[in-house]
């Protein structure tokens, strides 16, 4: 394979602290009763990759390694120190010596059935610097009730500007960074007179990038995250021209205290053969003027917009919950056969209980009498008492739900206990919580002990 | 047409009548002085008056009722229509002229149309100088469909997709639009003119999920309007042009809710002849048949038939072509014209009854009716109006315009882009296209220099538009002069939130400058207020932290500041005088400098800064060697090893090399001194 895959599994889950990601690695949160990180691994396997680098935190390395035992992919675990709070770009910099070819970077929270070749094709076609995967946010996604308190929705929208073919990314801005006016240069508009700006897209954190980008990262230490800094920087730099080459030479030779850092264009050199090929080829990426292919832009960013299929990025509680709900539908395409069994044979379900076909029940779960489970996921070794109703909910591992509870649209963290006759609607219950008898909650996040005292 | 009556059935019928309004005036001076004598819309393009193209377009779109709104020299248009096929009983549509001599803008024209209440349904609004083969029925149909859905649809603008460098894109209306997808609704409309940046309000993209920002559109100046458009012009009496209208509607969009849409055509041809450059471009397109079926051999409005031959040669009847004359390609020759032998013509239009002599070269010229051209002339990209006489041996260069009845020659060369008219006096009645308000002084008419012994020609220079503030941003192209392409500024990104560099990189140089200024000020203040050196050092140190200055830069800048102080005191002094000044300051601030310049590294910093400084400043460069000598010998600031090391490290580059050479004698002296001392040691 021409690409070298890297799975970024060192996230701290700062956007889902309610699930106690500080102690429990985010990469191992179960989606469809499988640890999240397994999905990117399977995706790479499906695409025919044989090895991959997995970036993990020092403290979580052992756990994640254990969870991934038995996969076909040869995994090379690289652990980064916990203390430094490194971003994704920092991790890449750390990996520098291992990078031999162009990189394929996947975040561990990406769950999709998209086939990698679609992105790779765009990357190859345009000889891109970076190609990313974008996915439209389905409209119903925004309206679904999310468990937990109804926080005001912080706008995290990104605006992405495409060229006429819809492949090249010319512009990217997040809503928070925008001023009253957006300025565009006329000279750029001259070369790209058609700019299609879309706002309903999310970056899936899957990138294919040229090897030299890592070399560039090594020289500019200020960049710490790929999504937040590196990608916007590359997109912006697409239209600037490299300084005259003699300038660069000068900067390198003089020992003067001025900034001797070589700029990004010294890294993006195209080898002679490629240049010759491009010169002789009749293929051109644009119409309307007589300029050469790519207008001599050494940096080019492209994107593949996923149009059909399944694609969720489980990096927030809402998205995590949603991915769990959707997973039974697509699990068969994403995981191996033995992992896609709806109800594990080792579960014991007592009489008169109903478990819908749209549910997943993991091994060792015990379900009591007259209990109904609909559109829900029940984790490993859960104990569910009699006359419990569970609908639209996600129950993580080792949860005990006692008799007569009614749980709807909620997310219950691992090792929690829900005592008798509780009613939970659209709630998040954190890791290891104990909910007292007859507790009634709606739209709440139950995470700390002090919360429990209120009842 | 059906008489107006209030019956239900008649009203239904009226809905079906497609109306069009032709504004047969451009309200600008794009064609003056030619348009003084004849309105622009009647000027010939490929030997057919412009207005005919517009009428053919509307006729093909099955428009039944056409109103031609004429202002300047409207009577001529009226009589032209009266004598044309459009007034025949067989004419497929009724064409009527609306005359209003005093009208000064398109806004006024539409207000008058509103007052006359002749518009009953959706209508096509078009300028009389548009050449197009667009299928308007479909666009009108789409407009109607949109209006049925949303009553507030007021206009659909017809645009053609054309890249920014397209030759029929008029630089005077260079537009950028933001269009919502998939509705094609216009969200933002901006004329660019000389601006290098485009400002898009952020709401345009935040409130719509899919927006196209388009700079690849050519304005066809054809718009499908809803019946309320004239009314809106009346309500907003400050709307002068369609641009005003579009901007006004977009700004008040939230209040009034009116919407404007765009219809982008790809295949068809459309362009407006708004100035001489466009006249040239469109004429060539007509000859190359881009405008089919509007081509010279198809326009049946001319009385004579035209035959079409290979290489796009269009010949009328009764033409005399002498032996050896060559019509190369894209040539139209009108009836009764004779061409002399060995004459070569290409990419040109020649009108009726012209006489062209022998050995004449004509390229890209537009020669109207009854023109006489003598032998051995060379004519390139010029316009020669009716009854122009060019005597033998004349050279016309690109962009020359010879207005009605001008005579030039013999044996002269007319410089590029010269506009000539036959009489110096201004007739205020038919001044330009419209501007009767401008007084005569504005149009400067110089009496003719020598345009040949038999010449009768006066230079016309267009009026200066000092009083027209709103036109400031407009581009005025001059035919024949190369269009200056805007500077391809080195841009950092498509969206110019500059300083897109990584935060640390981008802000550093500024900080350094600020820091340096602060240090300089502090030193001046220290001397004035007699601040003690320890406090001064403290102050500079705190500045260093405030501006986050590198320690190496700090060393250099402190020394530079002290040297600078000496220079600033008496900026005119040079040589010894300057050196003495600097020395005094050095001596005074010696404790300060010594605090910073201690080890070899800091000395090197100091020397490098001096090196930079001397490259930037000639005065310093003059005293550099002596200054370093002083710093070495008298105040013992620099050690000789560091100086030698620094000298070796100076790169062999422009500027730096001078410093190196300048320092050579001193270094030599240093080394000799060293050798001597070492010799002494060995003794």
From TrEMBL, chain A:
<keyword id="KW-0396">Initiation factor</keyword>
<dbReference type="GO" id="GO:0005085">
    <property type="term" value="F:guanyl-nucleotide exchange factor activity"/>
</dbReference>
<keyword id="KW-0963">Cytoplasm</keyword>
<feature type="domain" description="Nucleotidyl transferase">
    <location>
        <begin position="5"/>
        <end position="136"/>
    </location>
</feature>
<dbReference type="InterPro" id="IPR029044">
    <property type="entry name" value="Nucleotide-diphossugar_trans"/>
</dbReference>
<keyword id="KW-0648">Protein biosynthesis</keyword>
<dbReference type="GO" id="GO:0002183">
    <property type="term" value="P:cytoplasmic translational initiation"/>
</dbReference>
<comment type="function">
    <text>Acts as a component of the translation initiation factor 2B (eIF2B) complex, which catalyzes the exchange of GDP for GTP on the eukaryotic initiation factor 2 (eIF2) complex gamma subunit. Its guanine nucleotide exchange factor activity is repressed when bound to eIF2 complex phosphorylated on the alpha subunit, thereby limiting the amount of methionyl-initiator methionine tRNA available to the ribosome and consequently global translation is repressed.</text>
</comment>
<dbReference type="InterPro" id="IPR056764">
    <property type="entry name" value="LbH_EIF2B3/5"/>
</dbReference>
<dbReference type="GO" id="GO:0005829">
    <property type="term" value="C:cytosol"/>
</dbReference>
<comment type="subunit">
    <text>Component of the translation initiation factor 2B (eIF2B) complex which is a heterodecamer of two sets of five different subunits: alpha, beta, gamma, delta and epsilon. Subunits alpha, beta and delta comprise a regulatory subcomplex and subunits epsilon and gamma comprise a catalytic subcomplex. Within the complex, the hexameric regulatory complex resides at the center, with the two heterodimeric catalytic subcomplexes bound on opposite sides.</text>
</comment>
<comment type="similarity">
    <text>Belongs to the eIF-2B gamma/epsilon subunits family.</text>
</comment>
<feature type="domain" description="EIF2B subunit epsilon/gamma LbH">
    <location>
        <begin position="343"/>
        <end position="436"/>
    </location>
</feature>
<dbReference type="Pfam" id="PF00483">
    <property type="entry name" value="NTP_transferase"/>
</dbReference>
<dbReference type="InterPro" id="IPR005835">
    <property type="entry name" value="NTP_transferase_dom"/>
</dbReference>
<dbReference type="GO" id="GO:0003743">
    <property type="term" value="F:translation initiation factor activity"/>
</dbReference>
<dbReference type="InterPro" id="IPR051960">
    <property type="entry name" value="eIF2B_gamma"/>
</dbReference>
<protein>
    <recommendedName>
        <fullName>Translation initiation factor eIF2B subunit gamma</fullName>
    </recommendedName>
</protein>
<dbReference type="Pfam" id="PF25084">
    <property type="entry name" value="LbH_EIF2B"/>
</dbReference>
<dbReference type="GO" id="GO:0005851">
    <property type="term" value="C:eukaryotic translation initiation factor 2B complex"/>
</dbReference>
TrEMBL record, chain B:
<dbReference type="InterPro" id="IPR016024">
    <property type="entry name" value="ARM-type_fold"/>
</dbReference>
<dbReference type="InterPro" id="IPR051956">
    <property type="entry name" value="eIF2B_epsilon"/>
</dbReference>
<dbReference type="InterPro" id="IPR035543">
    <property type="entry name" value="eIF-2B_epsilon_N"/>
</dbReference>
<dbReference type="InterPro" id="IPR044123">
    <property type="entry name" value="W2_eIF2B_epsilon"/>
</dbReference>
<dbReference type="InterPro" id="IPR005835">
    <property type="entry name" value="NTP_transferase_dom"/>
</dbReference>
<dbReference type="InterPro" id="IPR003307">
    <property type="entry name" value="W2_domain"/>
</dbReference>
<dbReference type="GO" id="GO:0005829">
    <property type="term" value="C:cytosol"/>
</dbReference>
<dbReference type="GO" id="GO:0031369">
    <property type="term" value="F:translation initiation factor binding"/>
</dbReference>
<feature type="region of interest" description="Disordered">
    <location>
        <begin position="417"/>
        <end position="510"/>
    </location>
</feature>
<dbReference type="InterPro" id="IPR056764">
    <property type="entry name" value="LbH_EIF2B3/5"/>
</dbReference>
<keyword id="KW-0396">Initiation factor</keyword>
<feature type="domain" description="W2">
    <location>
        <begin position="505"/>
        <end position="680"/>
    </location>
</feature>
<dbReference type="Pfam" id="PF00483">
    <property type="entry name" value="NTP_transferase"/>
</dbReference>
<feature type="compositionally biased region" description="Acidic residues">
    <location>
        <begin position="424"/>
        <end position="437"/>
    </location>
</feature>
<keyword id="KW-0963">Cytoplasm</keyword>
<protein>
    <recommendedName>
        <fullName>Translation initiation factor eIF2B subunit epsilon</fullName>
    </recommendedName>
</protein>
<dbReference type="Pfam" id="PF02020">
    <property type="entry name" value="W2"/>
</dbReference>
<comment type="similarity">
    <text>Belongs to the eIF-2B gamma/epsilon subunits family.</text>
</comment>
<dbReference type="InterPro" id="IPR029044">
    <property type="entry name" value="Nucleotide-diphossugar_trans"/>
</dbReference>
<dbReference type="GO" id="GO:0005851">
    <property type="term" value="C:eukaryotic translation initiation factor 2B complex"/>
</dbReference>
<comment type="subunit">
    <text>Component of the translation initiation factor 2B (eIF2B) complex which is a heterodecamer of two sets of five different subunits: alpha, beta, gamma, delta and epsilon. Subunits alpha, beta and delta comprise a regulatory subcomplex and subunits epsilon and gamma comprise a catalytic subcomplex. Within the complex, the hexameric regulatory complex resides at the center, with the two heterodimeric catalytic subcomplexes bound on opposite sides.</text>
</comment>
<dbReference type="GO" id="GO:0003743">
    <property type="term" value="F:translation initiation factor activity"/>
</dbReference>
């Amino acid at each position: 394979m021409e690409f070298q895959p890297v799975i970024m599994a060192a996230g701290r889950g700062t956007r889902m602290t309610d699930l106690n990601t500080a102690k429990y690695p985010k990469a191992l949160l179960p989606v469809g009763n499988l640890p999240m990180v397994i999905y990117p691994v399977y995706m790479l396997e499906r695409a025919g990759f044989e090895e991959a680098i997995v970036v993990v935190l020092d403290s979580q390395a052992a756990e994640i390694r254990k969870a991934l035992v038995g996969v076909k992919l040869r995994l090379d675990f690289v652990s980064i120190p916990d203390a430094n709070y490194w971003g994704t770009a920092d991790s890449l910099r750390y990996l520098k010596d291992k990078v031999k070819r162009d990189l394929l970077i996947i975040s561990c929270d990406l769950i999709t059935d998209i086939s990698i070749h679609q992105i790779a094709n765009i990357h190859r076609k345009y000889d891109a610097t970076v190609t990313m995967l974008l996915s439209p946010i389905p409209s119903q996604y925004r309206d679904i009730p999310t468990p937990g308190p109804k926080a005001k929705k912080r706008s995290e929208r990104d605006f992405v500007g495409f060229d006429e073919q819809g492949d090249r990314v010319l512009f990217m801005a997040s809503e928070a960074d925008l001023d009253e006016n957006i300025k565009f240069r006329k000279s750029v508009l001259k070369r790209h007179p058609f700019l299609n700006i879309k706002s309903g897209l999310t970056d899936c954190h899957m990138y294919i990038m040229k090897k030299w980008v890592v070399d560039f990262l090594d020289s500019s230490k200020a960049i710490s995250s790929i999504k937040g800094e590196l990608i916007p920087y590359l997109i912006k730099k697409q239209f600037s021209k490299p300084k005259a080459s003699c300038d660069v030479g000068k900067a390198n030779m003089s020992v003067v205290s001025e900034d001797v850092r070589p700029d990004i264009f010294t890294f993006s050199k195209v080898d002679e053969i490629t240049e010759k090929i491009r010169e002789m080829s009749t293929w051109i990426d644009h119409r309307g003027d007589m300029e050469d292919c790519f207008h001599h832009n050494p940096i080019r960013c492209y994107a593949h917009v996923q149009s059909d299929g399944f694609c969720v990025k489980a990096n927030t509680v809402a998205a995590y919950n949603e991915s769990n709900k959707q997973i039974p539908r697509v699990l068969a395409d994403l995981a191996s056969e033995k992992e896609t069994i709806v109800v594990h044979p080792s579960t014991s379900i007592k009489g008169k209980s109903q478990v819908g076909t749209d549910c997943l029940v993991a091994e060792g779960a015990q379900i009591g009498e007259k209990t109904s489970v609909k559109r829900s996921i029940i984790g490993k070794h859960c104990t569910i008492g009699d006359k419990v109703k569970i609908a639209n909910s996600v129950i993580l591992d080792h949860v005990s739900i006692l008799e007569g509870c009614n749980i709807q649209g909620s997310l219950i963290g691992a090792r929690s206990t829900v005592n008798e006759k509780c009613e939970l609607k659209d709630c998040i219950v954190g890791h290891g919580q104990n909910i007292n008898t007859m507790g009634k909650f709606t739209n709440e996040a139950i995470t700390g002990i002090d919360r429990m005292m209120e009842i | 047409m059906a008489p107006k009556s209030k019956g239900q059935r008649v009203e239904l019928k009226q809905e079906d009548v497609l109306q069009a309004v032709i504004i047969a005036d451009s309200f600008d001076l794009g064609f003056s002085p030619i348009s003084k004598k004849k309105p622009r819309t009647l000027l010939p393009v490929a030997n057919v008056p412009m207005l005919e193209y517009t009428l053919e377009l509307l006729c093909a779109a099955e428009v039944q009722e056409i109103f031609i709104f004429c202002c300047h020299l409207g009577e001529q248009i009226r009589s032209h229509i009266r004598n044309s096929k459009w007034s025949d009983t067989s004419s497929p549509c009724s064409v009527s002229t609306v005359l209003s001599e005093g009208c000064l803008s398109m806004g006024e024209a539409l207000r008058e149309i509103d007052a006359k209440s002749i518009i009953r349904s959706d209508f096509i609004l078009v300028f009389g100088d548009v050449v197009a083969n667009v299928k308007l029925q479909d666009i009108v149909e789409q407009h109607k469909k949109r209006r049925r859905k949303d009553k507030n649809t007021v206009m659909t603008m017809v645009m053609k997709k054309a890249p920014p460098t397209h030759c029929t894109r008029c630089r005077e209306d260079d537009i950028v639009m933001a269009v919502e997808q998939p509705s094609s609704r216009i969200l933002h409309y901006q004329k660019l003119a000389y601006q290098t940046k485009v400002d898009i309000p952020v709401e345009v993209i935040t409130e719509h999920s899919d927006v196209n920002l388009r700079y690849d559109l050519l304005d066809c100046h054809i718009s499908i309007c809803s019946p309320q458009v004239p009314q809106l012009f009346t309500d907003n009496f400050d709307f002068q042009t369609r641009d005003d209208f579009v901007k006004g509607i977009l700004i008040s969009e939230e209040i009034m809710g009116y919407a404007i849409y765009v219809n982008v055509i790809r295949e068809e041809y459309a362009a407006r002849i708004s100035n001489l450059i466009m006249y040239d471009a469109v004429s060539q397109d007509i000859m190359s048949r881009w405008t089919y079926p509007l081509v010279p051999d198809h326009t049946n409005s001319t009385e004579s038939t035209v035959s079409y031959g290979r290489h796009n040669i269009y010949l009328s009847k009764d033409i005399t072509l002498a032996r050896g004359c060559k019509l190369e390609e894209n040539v139209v020759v009108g009836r009764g014209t004779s061409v002399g032998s060995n004459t070569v013509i290409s990419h040109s239009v020649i009108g009726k009854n012209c006489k062209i002599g022998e050995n004449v070269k004509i390229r890209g010229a537009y020669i109207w009716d009854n023109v006489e051209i003598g032998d051995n002339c060379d004519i390139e990209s010029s316009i020669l109006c009716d009854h122009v006489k060019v005597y033998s041996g004349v050279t016309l260069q690109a962009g020359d315009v010879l207005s009605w009845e001008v005579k030039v020659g013999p044996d002269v060369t007319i410089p590029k882009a010269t506009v000539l008219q036959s009489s110096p006096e201004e007739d205020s009645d038919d001044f330009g296209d419209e501007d009767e308000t401008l007084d005569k002084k504005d149009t400067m008419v110089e009496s003719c220099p020598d345009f040949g012994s038999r010449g009768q020609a006066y230079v016309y220079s267009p009026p200066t538009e000092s009083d027209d503030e709103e036109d400031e941003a407009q581009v005025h192209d001059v035919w024949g002069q190369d269009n200056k392409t805007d500077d391809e500024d080195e841009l950092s990104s498509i969206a110019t939130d500059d300083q897109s560099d990584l935060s640390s990189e981008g802000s550093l140089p500024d900080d350094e400058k600020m820091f340096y200024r602060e240090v300089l000020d502090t030193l001046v203040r220290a001397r004035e207020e007699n601040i003690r050196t320890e406090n001064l050092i403290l102050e500079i140190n705190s500045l260093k932290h405030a501006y986050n200055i590198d320690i190496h830069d700090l060393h250099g800048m402190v020394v530079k500041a002290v040297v600078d102080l000496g220079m600033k005191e008496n900026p005119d002094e040079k040589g010894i005088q300057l050196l003495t000044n600097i020395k005094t300051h050095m001596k005074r601030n010696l404790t300060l400098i010594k605090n910073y310049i201690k080890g070899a590294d800091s000395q090197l910093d100091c020397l490098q800064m001096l090196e930079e400084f001397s490259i930037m400043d000639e005065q310093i460069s003059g005293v550099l060697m002596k200054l370093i000598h002083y710093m070495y010998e008298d105040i013992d600031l620099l050690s000789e090893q560091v100086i030698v090391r620094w000298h070796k490290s100076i790169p062999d580059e422009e500027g730096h090399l001078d410093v190196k050479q300048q320092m050579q004698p001193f270094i030599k002296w240093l080394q000799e001194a060293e050798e001597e001392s070492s010799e002494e040691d060995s003794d």
